[in-house]
Amino acid sequence: MPFLKLKKPLKGLKELRDFDPGLSDLAALLIGAKPVLYTDFSADGWPYIRGLCEALKLKYLMPEAVYGKAGFKAVPKSGKRMLLIGRGTKALKDAAKSWLRSPTDPAWGLLLGYPECCVRAYIEWRSLAAKTDLVNFTFGRTLKKERFHFGLNNVFNYFSRLTGQPADREAFARIRAANKDLDLSALQVISWHPCSYGCGPSAKLAGEIFSFLSACLPERAAELKERLGKPVLFRDKYEYLVLAGSAKKGEARYSGLSEPRGLLPEALLKKIEAGNLLKAGKDSVAVFRGSRPLYKITSARPFSLLDFTASKG
Ligand SMILES: [Zn+2]
Known about the structure:
Elements: E1 3-10, E2 13-17, H1 23-30, E3 36-41, H2 46-56, E4 59-61, H3 63-67, E5 81-86, H4 89-97, H5 106-111, H6 116-126, H7 134-140, H8 166-178, H9 200-216, H10 218-228, E6 231-236, E7 239-248, E8 251-258, H11 266-273, E9 277-280, E10 284-289, E11 292-298, E12 304-307
Helix pairs in contact: 1-9, 9-10
The protein binds zinc ion.
C-alpha cells in the first residue's frame, strides 16, 4: 500500500508514501535523529517528493547533477535518480560534498546521522561480507543474547547488505517472490544496521522513531511491531523462520510460523511446525510438543535464536 493516511494532517499533508523516501528514514529525519537522508526516485514520483519537502520545509539537492555518477549510484537502467533531503542547507551541502566518498568511509555514515558505533561496525563487516552475513556478524557482537528491541530487527532489511554476487542476487529474488504480498524493504524501524542487538544509541533512536510513527501512522506502526517483534530462528541471510510466540533463555514457545518467510527447506519447516517449543543449542535445534521431544535438527551451520521481543532498549 504505497500511500498511508495520516492520523491527523502533518503540516497540511494528509498522507505519506512508504517508499522513496522510506518511512523509517523520513521519520528519523523529521524527529531530528538524522540530518540528511538519501533516496532514489523516479520521474513520476517527483511531484510527491517536491510537495513533501515544501510542506515539511525540507531542503533537497540532486547530487548527481553536481557531482556526477561516481560514488553512490541509482540502480543502472532503472531510470531513477538520486536525491538528498535534509532539514538544513549546511548538512545537505556537507553530504553532497561527500557524495564521492565510499560507503565504507566512516565520514559518510556519520554525515547521515547514524550512531558512530554502528558506522564503524558496518565498515568492519564489509570486509567480511562475502563469508558472513551481517545478521550473524551483529549477533556475534551482541553480549546479552536475549530480549532485543524489536526496532533493531534488521533480518528483513537487505539494503546495504547484498553482495552483488549472482547467487546472492538469485536468493534475494527468491525471497522477494516468497513474500510477494509483503514489502520487505519497508519492514524496518531504523534505516541503518545496528552494531549489536544491544546497541544503546540505536535502541534509543528506534524508540523515538517508533513513537513518531505510532502518533502519525498507528496502523503502520502496529504492523511493524507485529512483524519485527518476534523470535527469529536464524541460520543465514535467507535461511530463517519467524515464530509466532515468545522466547526466553534460548527457548522459544510458539503457536506457529509467521511471515516473512525465509528460504529454509520445507521438510525442516514441517518439523518446527509440528512443535510448540524449541531450544536452539550450539549445533542443533530441539523441537518439542509440550514436554514431549519431537525432533533434533542438526545443522553444519548453527542456528541462532534472535529474540526481538523487547520494546525498551
Ligand atoms: Zn551502535
